Amino acid sequence: MWNDRIETVKQNRLLHQAGGGIQKQERQHASGKLTVWERIDLLLDPDSFVEINSCMETDRGASNIGENRIYPGDGVITGWGSIDGRKVCIAAEDFTVIGGTLGVTHAKKIAKLQTLAYEMKTPVIFLNDSGGARIEEGINALSGYGEIFQNHVKASGIIPQICAILGPCSGGACYSPALCDFIFCVKDISKMFITGPAVVEAVLGSRPTLEELGGAQMHSTTSGVVHALYNDEATCLKGIRTLLSYLPSNCGQLPPCSPLPANGLYQKTRLPLQELVPDNVRKAYDMHLVIENLTDDVPFFEIQKHFAPNALVGFAYLDGKVIGIIANQPFQGGGSLDCDASDKIARFIRFCDCFHISLLTLVDVPAFLPGRDQEQKGIIRHGAKILYAYSEATVPKVTLIIRKAYGGAYIAMNSKTMGADLVYAWPIAEIAVMGAEGAVEILYKKKLAADPNRDETFRQLKQEYEDRFLNPETAERRGFVDEVILPEETRDKLVNAFRFLDTKKKFETGYTGKKHGNIPL
Q1: Given this chain, do its domains 2-244 and 273-429+481-503 carry the same CATH topology?
Q2: What residues does 397 pair with on adjacent strands?
Q3: Choosing a second label site near 394 at 20 to 30 A (CA), which of 49, 283, 304, 460?
Q4: Domain 2-244 carries which CATH code?
């Protein structure tokens, strides 16, 4: 009896690990994709994966389609493991088994895994590679999505939820990744769309390509659905491991720390900041260089790098502690705020607030982008998301005004009246309703039109405006800036600021509730 039962268990395990068989695994490789077990091995620490519910599969009597077939794992592998020694839960779809399609059992396995991750307060990672809902299971399959979606929302703001699209993801299945905190994709492999090309052609009369409709590149640059884009699966999975090194396991923990060098000195060679930032507001520069020269040796992990590039958001280490950075990017549109940048910034702020990640805002912003196009897209509605997110956030918030800070965009970028704990400004900072040239044109329009020496008068009026309104000392005297600092002092000032604010509104030991969820804005 024992020998028979043991042999049966061994055979079942071999069958399960073989997935859809050698031929289908070879087809997976031929299409440029890894198998589900290869993905798990690359993502997790060696020998750390523990599978659960491996023998769960669809009731073969529920349908007359494929009644006599066995579906190993029902197209999804679930379990837990570790990344850099920290526990994580994982659900990885297996395209070699009925196309990774979602049926009742498939959905139940994912939902059970979500519940486990929620109860254990561990990050959960989804590796999506699926043909969508299993047609033969009809509405029963579709209903499985509902439970998965509910679990996503329940866990939002409690544990980090990360998804990698490593194949097709269509129809209702798209909304599971959309409810996660971060979506990772791979060029030429990842495809996400609600409606496929054939249906689009039937309804609209034109047939887009898969890349146009839901390719990784499109979602990374145009739709903003994707948060990180990679050239291959191995690098993508490594990226997930890297992201987790900046995040706590749940909202009841503080973010991880990076050990400071024993001698207190970093290896990074820092350039003088004043050499990176021109004092002429018309000249662009790369804000990435400023971030690189302010932060620790650990690289800046940028989120949505290719979407709304006029704004930068991402994670960095400062003084050995994780911070979230929000910055304008003068290289793109002068660093102005538009609808997409507003959504990008607001959601990042809210994620950081969920998980106790302090915020540093680097300001060089001329305005909310003007024009009919932006107004019709709802710049008022989108811009208000930044205001709401900053006002709602209770984590330490420090602002550095680097150069220009004009109008409503100045207010939105974590100004003192929006709740910034500390606001610093460089000596070249210009804080005003608008730039000098535009202001003079409006304030003295009639006077200039009648002046025979218009150019000279304009120059004088412009200088008067700059001296009176654009000097950061004016904002400092009125308390809108806490201190005007020199570029070479900046890193030390920021380190001391965050050290002082470190105990701001700390949660109680054992805290397991959440401030708020991380709604997809």
Answers
A1: yes
A2: 359
A3: 304
A4: 3.90.226.10
Of 387, 308, 394, 405, give the one whose Cα is nearest residue 358.
394
Beta-strand pair 182-186/168-170: unpaired
Beta bridge partners of 162: 125, 182
User: What one-character-per-residue DSSP string does 355-370 give?
Assistant: TT-EEEEEEEE--BPP
Residues serving a catalytic function are: 171-172, 408-409
Contact of 83 with 116, CB cutoff 8 Å: no
Amino acid at 82: S
Residue 64, pLDDT > 60, answer no
Highest mean pLDDT among 50-59, 192-201, 295-304: 295-304
User: Would you identify the CATH topology of the domain 273-429+481-503?
Assistant: 2-enoyl-CoA Hydratase; Chain A, domain 1 (3.90.226)
For the segment 476-516, what is each residue's pLDDT rounded down to a tens digit?
Answer: 999 999 999 999 999 999 999 999 999 887 655 455 567 89
Give the separation between CA 103 and CA 74, rounded to whole angstroms: 8
Q: How far, in Å, CA of 287 to CA of 362, rounded?
A: 9
Domain ranges of the chain: 2-244, 273-429+481-503, 435-470
pLDDT in tens, 166-211: 999 988 889 999 999 999 999 999 999 988 777 777 777 778 888 8
Q: What is the pLDDT of residue 340?
A: 97
Give the end-to-end CA distance of the chain in Å, rounded to a whole number: 58
Bridge partners of 87, per DSSP, are 82
Determine the residue type at 211. E
Tokens for 454, please give them.
């218009």
Using CA atoms, how far residue 379 sits from 306, 336, 337, 340, in Å, is: 20, 12, 9, 9
Q: Residue 35 corresponds to which tokens in the numbers above?
A: 């198998």
Q: Which region holds residue 378: left if phi is over 0, alpha if psi is between -120 and 50, else beta? A: left
Using an 8 Å Cβ cutoff, are 350 and 394 in contact? no
**3-class secondary structure for 214-278?**
HEHHHHHHHHCCCCEEECCHHHHHHHHHHHHCCCCCCCCCCCCECCCCCCCCCCCCCCCHHHHCC
51 close to 104: Cβ distance less than 8 angstroms: no
